[in-house]
Description:
Elements: E1 2-11, E2 19-30, E3 33-45, E4 51-57, H1 65-81
Antiparallel strand pairs: 1-2, 2-3, 3-4
Amino acid sequence: MVVSQITDIVRTSELVYYMDEFNALVIYDILGNRTEGKIRFKIENTALGTKNIYITIIDQVDYPALPLKIELKKAIQKLIDDDALPL
């Protein structure tokens, strides 16, 4: 399981200042098969300064969802660290 790229990231939230919501397209490889799928994710900024990431996989996946969500959280955390998410 390798998440190659997260593209077409669109911010969908505007009203809650501590919760950021996004829709995106993810490209990932499962057992050598390259697949695209839509996801929705939320980033919650807690009072302690940490960030919690919640992911919803919109498209059907022919693979257990937990390993995919773990890899997606790592990729989204890298986007947060690189400050690459749209405002």
